[in-house]
Amino acid sequence: VQLQASGGGLVQAGGSLRLSCAASGRTFTRGAMAWFRQAPGKEREFVAVIGWSGGGTYYADSVKGRFTISRDNAKNTVYLQMDSLKPEDTAVYYCAANGRAVAVRPGSYDYWGQGTLVTVSS
Q: Cα separation of 29 and 37, whole Å?
């Protein structure tokens, strides 16, 4: 089971990035997929989650209205569209998957991607 995250990079404040996370080795059509992030010196924090049907989306207050999570079950891929980026969004972003309902705690996820770095300059 592997999750491959991509799409990170360097962007100016106010810009946009789209992260992708492709799952292979097992389908997660009926499980939640989520994004977390970890900034230097800080704990990993929840960003967004989406249920298996594409519903059940939840966002951290800090990204609500700026980030959009979506998924394509035919491709076993989840996306995170990030708009109006701020310097405080700078972090390594991780995708995660489970075979169960949506959750916001890292401990609720069994599979993790390797992370992709997002750097937002002021």
A: 23
